[in-house]
Amino acid sequence: MEVVIESDSASMARDIFSVRMAGNVVGDDAIASLEYAVKYLNTPLLIVLGHENCGAVSATMGDYGVGRVLPQLIGKIRLAVQTATKNYANCTKDQLLEKCIEENTRLGMNKLMSPSEKIRTLVKEGKVAIGCGVINLENNKIKWVVAPAVQ
Ligand SMILES: [Zn+2]
Known about the structure:
The chain has 6 helices and 4 strands.
């Protein structure tokens, strides 16, 4: 299944409550923002969206020098890289990056629900759908890792 995001930024600003973090890491600030969205704006759908060739995931795989603050970010992505590296041991480096990005969205989606009783309850009640995927920034097509659905 593929979806193309319309590039009309005015309608996106109106219709999409977007929380952007490098490496689409799901931390307390992002969770708090999304709790607000589901509670007060009645947001019906949560998507953890990674993107192809993500530099933060690539950095976690060891491609870039590590700066002063980057280690904190990398620490939040490391489990995804370790899991994908274990599960896809025979991939090329590019394929492995893709799998790490996908795993990072899957772990992010799970992490989104674990500390938030509000989000977990709304998902369980079928009032909020949740999913995760990876967008190609050149054509805006999304490859779903977990297609958005009421769980
Ligand atoms: Zn990125």
